[in-house]
C-alpha cells in the first residue's frame, strides 16, 4: 500500500496532539506554550492543505480519508483536554469544552453506525466552519499562554511589536473565553444539524 504525501500530513496531525501533551509534561513554560502553539498551528494548516493536494493531484486514498477524519478529531479533543489541564481558566469553561468533546465523539459514533448501514453523512459547510472556529480558538489560547508565561512583557520585542503587554492579558483571556463559548454554541448547532440528517437517512432506510 502506497502512502501518499497527503496521508503523511494526516499522520503528522494524528500524532501532533500527543506531541502537544508531551511538551507540557516535560518542558517549562513559556517554552511549552511556544512549541504547543507552533505544533498546533502547523497541524491545523495541514488540515486545510492535505485534502486540496489529494484532489488536485489525484492522490485520494481510502487510508487517507480515514486518517484525515480521525486525525482532526484526535487533534482537537487532545488540545481541549490540554487547555483544561494546563491553562488557568475559570472552572465554568469546563462546560463548553465538555459540550464540544461530547459532540465530536457523538457524531463520530453516529457516522460509524451509519457506515455499517451503508449510509453516508456528508460534511457540510457549517461543519467546516466549526472546525476552523475551533482551531482558531485553540491557537489563540495557546498564544495567550505565551503572553501569560512570557519571559518579560516589555522586554519582549515580539510582544511589544504586537502591542501586547501584561495589562492586556485579561482582554486576551476574555476573548478566548468568548470564542470557546461561541465554538460550543456552533458545535451544538452543527451536531443537531447532523443528527437531523442522520434521522432522515435512517428513516428512508426503514421505509425501503
Keywords:
208 residues; mainly alpha; Four Helix Bundle (Hemerythrin (Met), subunit A); 0% strand; globular
Number of strands: 0
- Specify the CATH class: Mainly Alpha
Determine Rg (CA atoms, Å): 19 Å
- The quaternary organization reads as single chain
Assign an overall shape. globular
Estimate the helix proportion, in percent: over 70%
Low-confidence stretches: none
Task: Kindly report how far apart the N and C termini lie.
Answer: 37 Å
Task: Note the total helix count.
Answer: 7
Reported for the largest beta sheet, the result is: none
Task: Describe, in plain words, how this protein is organized in 3D.
The structure is a single chain. The chain has helices spanning 5-26, 31-56, 62-86, 94-116, 125-148, 157-161, 169-207. The chain is an all-alpha fold and 208 residues long. It has one domain (5-207): Up-down Bundle (Four Helix Bundle (Hemerythrin (Met), subunit A)). The protein is globular and about 55 Å long. The two termini are 37 Å apart.
Helix/strand layout:
Elements: H1 5-26, H2 31-56, H3 62-86, H4 94-116, H5 125-148, H6 157-161, H7 169-207
Helix pairs in contact: 1-2, 1-3, 2-3, 2-5, 3-4, 3-5, 4-7, 5-7
Amino acid at each position: 500500500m502506497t502512502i501518499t504525501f497527503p496521508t503523511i500530513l494526516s499522520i503528522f496531525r494524528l500524532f501532533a496532539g500527543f506531541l502537544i501533551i508531551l511538551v507540557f509534561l516535560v518542558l517549562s513554560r513559556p517554552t511549552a506554550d511556544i512549541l504547543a502553539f507552533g505544533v498546533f498551528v502547523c497541524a491545523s494548516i495541514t488540515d486545510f492543505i492535505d485534502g486540496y493536494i489529494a484532489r488536485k493531484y489525484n492522490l485520494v486514498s481510502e487510508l487517507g480519508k480515514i486518517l484525515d477524519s480521525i486525525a482532526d478529531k484526535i487533534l482537537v479533543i487532545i488540545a481541549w483536554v490540554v487547555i483544561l489541564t494546563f491553562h488557568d481558566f475559570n472552572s465554568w469553561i469546563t462546560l463548553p469544552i465538555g459540550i464540544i468533546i461530547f459532540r465530536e465523539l457523538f457524531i463520530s459514533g453516529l457516522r460509524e453506525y451509519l457506515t455499517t448501514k451503508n449510509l453516508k453523512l456528508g460534511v457540510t459547510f457549517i461543519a467546516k466552519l466549526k472546525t476552523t472556529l475551533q482551531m482558531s480558538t485553540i491557537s489563540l489560547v495557546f498564544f495567550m499562554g505565551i503572553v501569560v508565561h512570557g519571559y518579560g512583557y516589555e522586554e519582549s520585542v515580539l510582544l511589544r511589536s504586537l502591542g501586547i503587554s501584561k495589562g492586556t492579558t485579561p482582554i486576551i483571556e476574555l476573548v478566548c473565553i468568548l470564542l470557546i463559548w461561541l465554538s460550543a454554541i456552533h458545535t451544538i448547532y452543527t451536531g443537531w444539524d447532523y443528527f437531523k440528517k442522520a434521522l432522515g437517512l435512517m428513516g428512508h432506510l426503514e421505509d425501503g
